[in-house]
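WP5 quarterly update. Target: Phospholipid/glycerol acyltransferase domain-containing protein. Source organism: Janibacter hoylei PVAS-1. Length: 294 aa.
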Amino acid sequence: MTSRTLGHAAGAAAGEGWERRFSETLQFLQRRVKGDYAVDDFGFDRDFTLHTVFPVLRLLKDKWFRVEVRGIDNIPADGGALLVSNHSGTVAIDSVITQLAIHDAHPQGRFLRMLGADLVFQLPVVGDVARKTGATLASNADAERLLRGGELVGVWPEGFKGVGKPFRERYKLQRFGRGGFVSAAVKAEVPIIPCSVVGAEEVYPMIGNMKTVARLVGAPYAPITPFFPLLGPLGLIPLPSKWIIEFGEPIDTASLGPAAAEDPMLVFEVTDQVRETIQQTLYSVLVTRRSVFF
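Structure tokens (predicted):
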């Protein structure tokens, strides 16, 4: 086949790709106008997520962060499961990138239903988009309901302590709280899947905290990075770090029985096991990482 023929073939394929995307966009707009889409009890709008949010995030995931996914086979094909991950990056985009990474890499295209902090849902626009993309308030009741309904649920137990920690403490897990996520998994009798994200710590290296500003705006912290606020809006562009997301082997809870959720010592032990698994995986991935950006 000649180079000219190859060029024509590539051009035709690109043209077909654009035509398909344009057609999908038109169909999406028609469904929105007609109201021909479903929203569940938690506000999750699958159609909106697939056709508006995911395409934008996919550019970040594939072209900017070049996310590498490992251990996707540890996420079950169906049924409830609780994914527990480290939290980092100053701006908490690690959760949504993980959600997209799972959907794109999993054979069944599973959606991660994220549990978020109160602040997320108090923010204008952000709160509405979070609901539409499958997030809900981090409460045991909602977590158990989703898990019993066969959903894959994600929790980041470090919370703001994780995303807002100084750069010098990168990849060192903060406290996991009282293990509420373990109780929810035990009661629902679903496995816990440890998740370790490497790369997000370098997106916005936090070298300082404007505590007075944080108090004024009601935020948990106000970060100072090498480029923000020095460069203004340009400083908000994330650094193109190379990400690796690794899913560990599921930790069984069904064999413990639902009553075990009321045993604080057992809950603490499982919580510590999950935390230690994530921490050790972070260290092992860091050892094999060639570079922050490659």
